[in-house]
Design brief:
- This protein is α/β, with parallel strands linked by helices and about 110 residues long.
- The chain has one domain: DsrEFH-like (Hypothetical Protein Ychn, Chain: A).
- It is about 35% helix and about 25% strand.
- Helix 2 links the parallel strand 2 and strand 3.
- It is globular and about 40 Å long.
């Protein structure tokens, strides 16, 4: 039975490789039967930015971004994030912290990075 899964990324991709690895994992989950949503908190929204120069493992990230766009992986981003950072081709919605919390309570599984 397919599960509703949230992949929460809260770390800064300029400081650690874990946000890029979390996106790779999310991509694998989407390829299966699970309904997967990626939640980007704090500086992790930079993963969908045009300016990726400072992102650790940017070469790996750039390989995944076309598939993420093609599969229309849904992203939830904090409403106070600078919207000019996010490229428009991704399936994004902006939510308040309370709405994100309610969403996370509604899913079957949560992976936090």
């Amino acid at each position: 039975m397919a599960k509703k899964i949230a992949v929460v990324i809260r770390e800064d991709p300029r400081q650690t490789h874990r946000p890029v690895e979390a996106l790779r994992i999310a991509l694998g989950l989407v390829a299966g039967t699970h309904e997967t949503t990626v939640v980007l908190l704090n500086e992790s929204a930079r993963l969908l930015s045009e300016d990726l120069d400072d992102v650790i493992d940017v070469d790996i990230l750039e390989k995944y971004l076309p598939s993420i766009e093609h599969l229309e992986i849904p992203f939830i981003i904090q409403s106070d994030t600078d919207k000019s950072l996010i490229q428009s081709q991704y399936s994004t919605r902006y939510e308040t912290p309370d709405a994100i919390r309610a969403f996370l309570e509604s899913v079957d599984r949560t992976l936090v990075f």
